[in-house]
Amino acid sequence: MDFSPLLRELDVLHDCTLCPRNCHVDRFSNRLGYCRTGAGFTVSSICVHRGEEPVISGLKGICNLFFAHCNLQCSFCQNHQISDNRIDPEPFDLSIDEVVRQITGILDQGIPSVGFVSPSHMIPQVKVIVKAVKNAGYNPIWVYNSNGYDKVETLRELEGMIDVYLPDLKYIDPHLAKQLSDAEDYPRMAGAALKEMLKQQGTTLRVNDDGYAESGLLIRHLVLPGHIGNSLEVLRFIADELSPSVYVALMSQYYPAHRAITDPHLSRSLSLGEYATIVKAMEELGLERGFIQELESFNHYRPDFDKNHPFEHD
């Protein structure tokens, strides 16, 4: 199949302003921006993932496409093997033909949905992949699984293309956002991005008979040990600035990874009391739609991207 007409979507990368970093670099050249990725399809893994929220993984799992590198550099990142921008991205570069071949091979197994993980710096590539897979005769559910550090203008280009938004809302405290993710403007940018996602999808999460969300918005928040005040403010923002009817996934799966191993607050797992406090606050704020995790979940969500399948034993 000739994908060359679709690749014109990548032309915007000659002056990249996709995400809040606004680097204005030519990603076709050797002068790269914050994410340190070029104009190709820098994909670290395409695999079936069965460990997402029930409405995302459904009965059979989701085909997740993990982009390499990231526009955030979180000190506690559980995917740091692929998201650390110091890693050479060249080994992850795939052709669009190979990307489509791998995705459609998984869809042929009966998996009905495709998730883009860490896509904020790769929106033109997302658009090419969606169109290429559709041109190949497939019409999966498309899930946008982002860290929340997105631009409203870029998200508007995805309206009608993305079925389910699955963003993080990590911080309300800008100082904490700067300290842990190198993005002081994260609260402002993520707040605006989530409002745009809500505008596009509303508060209804439509789930089909096979248990998959077909459209809607589901906001994730990872509770960090020693920082429950930030989590309380995140939930308050969702209830007051978005809607108490929005779906929220409150995650307890934190474990010390990457640079967090030496952080005095983050070098331990979450305590039962910390998570219980946030769950109670969620209920008191009227956020009754969504998901919580077992505290022991931190033992089960530890990807290893050196393996053929990051989330399963070879």
General description of the model:
This protein is of the alpha/beta class and 314 residues long. It has a single domain, classed as TIM Barrel (Alpha-Beta Barrel). Strands 1, 2, 3, 4, 5, 6, 7, 8, 9 and 10 form a 10-stranded mixed sheet that branches. Helix 8 runs parallel beside helix 9. The radius of gyration is 18 Å and the shape is globular.
Q: Number of folding domains?
A: 1
The termini sit apart by: 32 Å
Summarize model confidence as the mean pLDDT. 95
- Return Rg in Å: 18 Å
Counting H and I runs of at least 4 residues, what is the number of helices?
9
- Helix and strand run: EHEHEHEHEHEHHEEHEHE
- Low-pLDDT residue spans: none
CATH class: Alpha Beta
Which structural class fits the helix and strand makeup?
alpha/beta
Shape: globular
The name CATH uses for the topology is TIM Barrel
At the fourth CATH level, what is the homologous superfamily? Aldolase class I
Main sheet makeup:
10 strands, mixed
Shape-level CATH architecture: Alpha-Beta Barrel
Distinctive features:
alpha/beta; 314 residues; globular; single chain; 9 helices
Topology:
Blueprint: E1 41-49, H1 54-57, E2 62-67, H2 80-83, E3 93-94, H3 96-107, E4 113-117, H4 123-135, E5 141-145, H5 152-156, E6 164-165, H6 174-181, H7 186-201, E7 206-207, E8 213-222, H8 228-242, E9 247-251, H9 272-284, E10 290-292
Parallel strand pairs: 2-4, 4-5, 5-6, 6-8, 8-9, 9-10
Antiparallel strand pairs: 1-2, 1-3, 7-8
Helix pairs in contact: 3-4, 8-9
